[in-house]
Design goal:
Layout lengths: L7 H6 L7 E4 L3 E5 L7 E7 L6 H7 L2 H17 L7 E4 L15 E5 L11
Antiparallel strand pairs: 1-2, 2-3, 3-5, 4-5
The structure holds guanosine-5'-monophosphate.
Guanosine-5'-monophosphate binds next to strand 2.
Length: 120
C-alpha cells in the first residue's frame, strides 16, 4: 500500500491540523487520541512516512526504530502508567481495522484494561 500524504496524522505532523502534543523527539511525535478509550490513550507516531508496522519494521532505519521505541517508553513513564501497567497496540491492515494509514502505537492505561481481545 502506497503512503497517502493526506492522511490525518501526516497533516498533524505538518502542523496543518491541531493535536494535543505530549512528547516529541527527532523521530517520533506523541499526542492524545481524539476519542480516548481509556483514561490514558496516547498515540505515538514516527515522523517518517510509514503506512503501518509492516512498513516501518521493514524499512525504517535503526536510528528511527530506536528513537521511536524510546519515545513509546518515555511517554508511558511521563503519563504515570509505567508502575500501574499499560497496553501498547498497533493495528496493521484490514483484519485489524486500522483506520489511519500512518504507523502509530496506541498506549492505553489508567484503568484495568481487561481482555486483550473480545471473546468471540
Ligand atoms: P487505528 O484504528 O488506525 O489504529 O486508530 C486510529 C486512532 O486515531 C483512533 O483511536 C482515532 O480516535 C484516532 N484519531 C483519528 N483522527 C484523529 C485526529 O484527528 N486527531 C487525533 N488526536 N486522533 C485521531
Amino acid at each position: 500500500m502506497a503512503y497517502d500524504r493526506n492522511n490525518v496524522f501526516a497533516k498533524i505532523l505538518r502542523g496543518e491540523i491541531p493535536s494535543q502534543k505530549v512528547f516529541e523527539n527527532e523521530h517520533a511525535l506523541a499526542f492524545k487520541d481524539i476519542n480516548p478509550q481509556a483514561p490514558v490513550h496516547i498515540l505515538v507516531i514516527p515522523k517518517g512516512a510509514y503506512v503501518s508496522f509492516e512498513d516501518f519494521s521493514a524499512k525504517a532505519s535503526p536510528e528511527e526504530i530506536v528513537g521511536f521505541t524510546r519515545a513509546v517508553g518515555e511517554v508511558a513513564r511521563a503519563q504515570g502508567v509505567a508502575q500501574s501497567g499499560y497496553r501498547i497496540l498497533a493495528n496493521h491492515g484490514p483484519d485489524s481495522n486500522q483506520e489511519v494509514p500512518h504507523f502509530h502505537i496506541h498506549i492505553f492505561g489508567g484503568k484495568r484494561l481487561g481482555r486483550m481481545l473480545p471473546k468471540e
